[in-house]
Each structure stands twice: as structure tokens, then as C-alpha cells.
Amino acid sequence: MNDLERLLHLRKMREARAARAAAQARNQYDAAAALRDNAARQLNGYEHDEAQREAHLHAALLEHRFSGDDLRAAADRALHSAAAREELTATLTAAEAAVSVAEQASLKASQEWRQSLRRREKLQVLFDDIFHRCRLRQESLTEAEAEDTPRIAGRSGP
């Protein structure tokens, strides 16, 4: 009986460990998703700002308001914009990959936790069944002893 209790306790510990791993994997997934969403917002905002700058530059060029230095500065900004966009795109791609990996880890950890829970429940049923059988056997032995005691006492009388 003691071994079964210890086995049940170990199952509960494994279940708790699996639950913690599932929660940690979910937290990692949430962090990766937040990073991805932030990178997407930055990229969208950057592209919007870049589109506004291009429209402003186009309008200014049509009105001939820029000097050669202004055009060189605009070209430099465009190069920096392209580099920044590429960097944000790379960050977004990496964040999406991290989200995918974290999501798979979260799913796996959740499955392991559910399996651990099912195993512990099965073990608990087995433990309860064995405990019930032992209790019935003990009651049966106690009743048998109670029945045998008067007979034994009657035979060994004076």
C-alpha cells in the first residue's frame, strides 16, 4: 500500500511539473507573439511614414522646391528607410518563427500535461480499488474473528 501511495505521489509531482512546463511554454508563446505583433506594428507604421515622405517628396519635386542637396538628403533617407524596413522585416520574420516554435512547444507541453493527468487519474482509480478491496478483506477478517471468538471461548470453557 505504501508503494502505491508513493507511486501516486510521484504521479502528482510529474503532473505538477508538466503543468508548470505547459504554463512556461504558453508564457514563451505569449512573449513571442507580443514581439511579433510589435514588429508588425513598427513595420506598418514605418511603411506608412515612408509613404507619407515619398508623397511629400513627390509633391515637392513637382513644384521644383528642392535643391540638389535636398535631393541627396532625400536619397540618403530613402536608403536608410530601405535598410530600416529590411531590418524590421527580418525582425518580424524571426518573431514569426519564434511564435511558431513557441506554439509547438506549448501544444506539446499541454499534451504532456493532459497525458500525465490521465495517467494519474488511472492510477488513482487503481489505488482506490485496491484500498477498497483491502478494506473489504479487513472487514471480512474482522467478522470472521468475531464469529470464531465465541466458538473458541465456548470450547475452552471450564
Would you kindly provide a written description of the structure presented here, covering whatever features stand out?
With 158 residues, this protein is mostly helical. The chain has a single domain (2-155), classed as Helix Hairpins. The protein starts with a helix and ends with a helix. Helix 1 runs antiparallel to helix 2. It is rod-shaped. It is 95% helix and 0% strand. It is built from two helices and no strands. InterPro entries: Flag_assembly_chemotaxis_eff (IPR053716). This is Type III secretion protein.
Mean pLDDT: 80
Q: Would you count the extended β strands for me?
A: 0
Task: Give the CA-based shape.
Answer: rod-shaped
Over the alpha carbons, how many angstroms does the gyration radius reach? 37 Å
Total number of helical segments? 2
- Terminal residue distance: 43 Å
Helix amount: over 70%
- Structural class assignment: mainly alpha
Q: Low-confidence runs (pLDDT<50, min 5 residues)?
A: none
CATH architecture: Orthogonal Bundle
Order of helices and strands: HH
CATH topology-level name = Helix Hairpins
**Relative strand content:** under 5%
CATH class: Mainly Alpha
Number of domains: 1
Largest sheet, if any?
none
Which key phrases capture this entry?
single chain, 158 residues, mainly alpha, Helix Hairpins, 0% strand, rod-shaped
In short:
This protein has 158 residues and is mostly helical. Helix content is 95%, strand content 0%.
Task: Describe the secondary structure blueprint for this structure.
Layout: H1 2-63, H2 68-155
Helix pairs in contact: 1-2
Protein name: Type III secretion protein
